[in-house]
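In this section we walk through a basic example: taking a raw amino acid sequence and producing a predicted 3D structure, encoded as discrete structure tokens. The instruction is simple. Fold the sequence below.
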Amino acid sequence: MKVLHMMKEQKGPHGTDAVTPQVAWGSPGQRILLKDLYKSTAMRSVGRRTFILGGLGAASTLAFASSARAAAFPFTLGVASGDPDSSSVVLWTKLAPSPLNADGQGGMANADVTVDWQVSTTSTFATLVASGSVAAHYADAHSVHVVAGGLAPDSDYYYRFRAQGFISPVGRTRTAPALGTTGRTLVMDFASCAHYESGYYNAYRRMAEDNPDLILHLGDYIYEDAATTGSVRLHVGAEIVSLADYRVRYALYKSDPDLQAAHAIAPWIVVPDDHEVENNYANMVRADNSPALTTAQWTARRTAAYRAYYENMPLRATSTPNGNSIQLYRRLQWGSLATFHMLDTRQFRDDQACGDGTQVCADADLASRTITGAAQEAWLLNGLGLKQATWDIIGQQVFFASKHTAAGAGSMDSWEGYRASRKRIQQGLIDNAVRNPVVLTGDVHSSWANELKADYTNTNSATIGTELVCTSITSTGDGTGSTTIPDAATNPHIKFHVDRRGYVRTTITPTQVQADFRSVAAVTQHGAAVSTTASFVIPDGQPGLNRI
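The resulting token sequence is shown next.
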């Protein structure tokens, strides 16, 4: 009787019970969400009744649901959305009742499966604004990418899937404002580097609790290395090389309920770094020959890695891999508030200079060397000249500002190893009179706030932009908590550093960007709290950092 009572609480637009088969999907499978995602404060906005109504909402669908009880719940990897524009967004899920099966097929049979999807303005799905069906193909490990179109600009939506008699978790997403309009305040979190073995995904959970409008992930979503004895939790198997290996590794990571909560709360914009393929690779050059691979085997590994990345990310079809290459640099417009220029600094770069060491050598200044490739560099400079929004935000993977020791040591895996390439980009900011350039960076497993200088060798040089560097989600463990800036005298443009895990929360308005550096107390203990270590404001038209 409680079920029937709750059904009648959910009314349609004219006060009628919204229990038609088109709207109310019935399946006991959806109630699985209550155990994992509903624990998140942020996910409460989706609503407990959504899960119960989704599970038992319509008598007309109970027979359909009960006939599927012999099958296992296929939505073990959750749902996601991404790459929003002003009228559409990508919806993602993947069918995997046994996600860690060694063949990488998630326990699914060798057959395509029809997946239904729905989008609504309410978490109860009383009224649909978009819906349809799509085939989840065995060849794609039953991953699904749906472009839900015809949506209103600057609007919140809820979405879900149905397959094999089960209903997925509910996700929330948002569209961008229309071109020429500012829209609402944008709360955007960004993160990187989530080594599964290093600890628990407390930062992902806390990001979900921020209730952000958008999340950027700047690389190292997975790590490719083998299980390491003594880790906080263990990878499955040896270092990954084959397509099946990569699929299983993504399944392991995406099975984490904290990561699922972060995906379900907001749309993501993603770019990879190196560990989605192999540590420190540069274009077609490997950092070393471990594991030992022939040229053909290395090409096959890269091909498998890009394919698995696309299968597991909410990307548009324009990013479908083509053999051992994938189109990932792209521009996303958030009305007239922000332009997101998302870079790929791994696939087209020249090999790291100086033998991939730490001592800066003359090769780092060669004009012929590039971290982006010529085509992407030209694309970025052209985009910066468009001036379509108040803020030009460059999302990319590795440390951008100059950072070196007094003795000249620096990371050749960062833009410090590609100084001429960095100089061309910074000159583009100057030549195009870019009003508010903000570079967002991951990779280095600690938080930094930097001012970009026209000339890093001149302490009186003009500030031409700002760089915000997020720490890792888990990589390198708990951290020391130190806020001492290394080599501060040599790098006066670096204004902040902390050695903790976490993320950066930004609040973007037409007048300023506020950046909150969020640090979790620990990753070796599940459920650790988060706090704001430091906050900065970047005012419109005044590049640089103002601590608050």
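Looking at the output, two observations stand out. The chain is about 20% helix and 25% strand. The longest helix spans residues 295-312. In the next section we compare this with other chains.
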